[in-house]
Amino acid sequence: MAAHQLSHLRNIGNTVALRLGEVGIKSEAELRRVGAAQAYQLMAAQCPGKRLPVCYYLYSLEGALQDRPWDALSEQEKAALRLAAGLPR
Description:
Strand content: under 5%
Domain TfoX C-terminal: 4-83
Protein name: Competence protein TfoX
Pfam families: TfoX_C
Radius of gyration: 12 Å
Organism: Aphanothece cf. minutissima CCALA 015
């Protein structure tokens, strides 16, 4: 149910949609309100001691919000996202 509301977005498959649902993000509107960086942080907090792949989560979320492939984000955009998510450059 919730996964279906998010999995229609570009870059968001069932696994990412389910993880978003686990942290309370169940719609596109909620993802937009929270933003990619904070959504990534919330999902990462669910997996302490484990680093979520940045390209599959952080970049994919931003790409979904912009309706762009995650790998089309510029290096500047990726660096800004990592900084906003509290990740090393």
